[in-house]
Design brief:
Layout (H helix, E strand, L loop, with lengths): L10 H24 L6 H14 L3 E2 L12 E4 L2 E3 L13 E10 L2 E10 L5 H19 L7 H13 L4 E2 L5 E3 L6 E5 L16 E4 L2 E3 L5 E3 L6 E3 L5 E3 L2 E6 L2 E4 L4 H9 L6
Antiparallel strand pairs: 1-4, 2-4, 3-12, 4-5, 6-10, 7-8, 7-9, 9-14, 10-13, 11-12, 14-15
Helix pairs in contact: 1-2, 1-5, 3-4
Length: 267
């Protein structure tokens, strides 16, 4: 099976991915229960891994190309691929939690960015706008449209608000592999790129910066942070193209239920 060929999924395959999306959403919710100031990022990772394994899945990220953990935990100016560690989260931080679940031969992939206590107003707005840009991209999905239509929707929305759009990292197809064709950039031109077809499963994941779009990679060969050290946010859903547009196969429902129970603001 080639990673460069776009594979359309059957209704049965989509259902497996959606079931994995529920496990994934609930794993995120277990993290949401304890995320907060004073918590070590490696403790969040342990909780997610245990939940996934207890529910018959495997963490998609662990050992993927040598990545050492279940979660990518990216704090403040780290865009993606942060490695869990003894670092304690602090009041005013933001933290992106990216996770994948593999079960019954298929992956599901999603990410959510949390506020730790009171964050600066402009950073809170960054999170709100990045999350909205995810849905702007999703709204552009329908059979016959092109990847560039999704990319353009995200880019035009976020750059119109003055943010930077990371170019070096993109969304992707999802299925038997964690990363399949096609790539789904968060920047592009309408009418460009592969045509969206019923059965295509893609992860849409805006990575948006408060400052300029440029990023650098740390010496660990994983961690990607903003070059200007300004904050970045990241939200992600796995979706399938359907006759009526698309269906979201992952979920933020369980995360946001926990946030509501904790009396925390849902952005």
């Amino acid at each position: 099976m080639s990673k460069r060929v776009i594979y359309l999924k059957s209704a049965e395959e989509a259902e497996i991915i959606k079931e994995n999306g529920v496990i994934l959403g609930k794993a995120h919710a277990e993290v949401a229960k304890i995320v907060g100031a004073g918590v070590k990022t490696k403790d969040l990772d342990k909780i997610a891994e245990e939940y996934i394994l207890d529910n018959g899945g495997k963490p998609s990220f662990k050992n993927y190309n040598g990545f050492p953990a279940t979660l990518c935990i990216s704090v403040n100016d780290v865009v993606v691929h942060g490695i869990p560690s003894n670092r304690e989260l602090l009041e005013g931080d933001i933290v992106s939690i990216d996770c994948g679940v593999y079960k019954n031969g298929y992956h599901a992939d999603s990410a959510y960015t949390y506020m730790i206590g009171n964050v600066k107003p402009e950073i809170k707005q960054l999170l709100k706008d990045t999350k909205q840009s995810l849905f702007e991209g999703i709204y552009a999905v329908k059979p016959g449209s092109r990847i560039g239509d999704v990319s353009y929707s995200i880019q035009s929305y976020t750059e119109g608000l003055g943010y930077g759009v990371v170019r070096e990292l993109v969304g992707h197809g999802v299925g038997k592999y964690l990363h399949e064709a096609p790539e789904v950039p968060n920047f592009g031109k309408r009418g460009n790129g592969p045509k969206l077809q019923v059965g295509m499963v893609i992860a849409i994941e805006p990575m948006i910066t408060l400052g300029k779009r440029f990023v650098v990679q740390e010496n660990d060969n994983w961690t990607i942070r903003t070059e200007d050290r300004k904050a970045a946010a990241h939200f992600e859903h796995t979706i399938i193209v359907s006759k009526g547009g698309c269906e979201i196969l992952t979920t933020f429902e369980f995360i946001e239920k926990v946030l509501k129970e904790k009396n925390l603001e849902i952005i």
